[in-house]
């Protein structure tokens, strides 16, 4: 597996990966309406482009395809961590998270934070993020609960 920076040409593949993963695994934690609203985010090309390219997004690849991606903003916000639906529990998410942590250390970030779903909370906890609050957000008229997680520099 190779990890590299995301490129404009990756956007269609990343959007498909995002949708497929949400539809495949979302229903284990969310209602069908929540899953559909969450997956629809990738259909907005301009918004999805910003989600990937306006932060530093790393892409995990094998010889044939993209396996996952993770993005971090310059302020320490982890914008994304997604692994292709048929590649979960193979260490790809962990490799991407370690790449994000290494990038944070190299750039001198003091705090990392994210909004974790039921789906991703375990990965964040595996990397010593702690949950400090929950919030309710709305997408397409559907409400979601998500967890606010953070990790301070001394733990990088």
Mean of the pLDDT scores?
94
Question: How far apart, in Å, are the first and last alpha carbons?
Answer: 23 Å
- The order of strands across the largest sheet is 1-2-3-4
Count, helices: 5
**Main beta-sheet annotation:** 4 strands, antiparallel
Structural class: alpha+beta
Order of helices and strands: EHHHEEEHEHEE
Q: Class in CATH?
A: Alpha Beta
**Can you count the beta strands?**
7
CATH architecture: 3-Layer(aba) Sandwich
Helix content: 25-40%
Write out the CATH superfamily name: Gcn5-related N-acetyltransferase (GNAT)
Percent range for β-strand residues: 25-35%
Please, could you describe this protein's structure?
- The chain is of the alpha+beta class and 156 residues long.
- The protein has one domain (2-111): Aminopeptidase, CATH 3.40.630.
- It is built from five helices and seven strands.
- The protein has a four-stranded antiparallel sheet, with helices on both faces. Strands 5-7-6 form a three-stranded antiparallel sheet.
Question: Quick gist of this model?
Answer:
The protein has 156 residues and is of the alpha+beta class.
Key phrases:
Aminopeptidase; alpha+beta; 156 residues; 7 strands
Topology:
Layout: E1 2-5, H1 11-25, H2 32-40, H3 45-53, E2 56-61, E3 66-72, E4 78-83, H4 92-106, E5 111-116, H5 121-126, E6 130-139, E7 142-152
Antiparallel strand pairs: 1-2, 2-3, 3-4, 5-7, 6-7
Helix pairs in contact: 1-2
């Amino acid at each position: 597996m190779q990890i590299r920076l995301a490129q404009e040409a990756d956007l269609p593949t990343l959007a498909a990966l995002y949708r497929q993963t949400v539809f495949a695994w979302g229903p284990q934690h969310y209602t069908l309406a929540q899953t559909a609203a969450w997956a629809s985010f990738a259909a907005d090309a301009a918004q999805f482009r910003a989600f990937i390219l306006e932060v530093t997004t790393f892409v995990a690849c094998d010889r044939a395809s993209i396996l996952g991606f993770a993005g971090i903003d310059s302020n320490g916000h982890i914008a994304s961590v997604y692994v292709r639906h048929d590649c979960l529990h193979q260490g790809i998410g962990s490799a991407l998270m370690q790449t994000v942590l290494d990038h944070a250390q190299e750039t001198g970030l003091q705090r990392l934070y994210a909004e974790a779903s039921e789906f991703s909370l375990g990965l964040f906890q595996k990397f010593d993020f702690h949950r400090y609050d929950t919030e309710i957000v709305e997408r397409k008229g559907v409400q979601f609960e998500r967890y606010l997680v953070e990790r301070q520099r001394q733990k990088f």
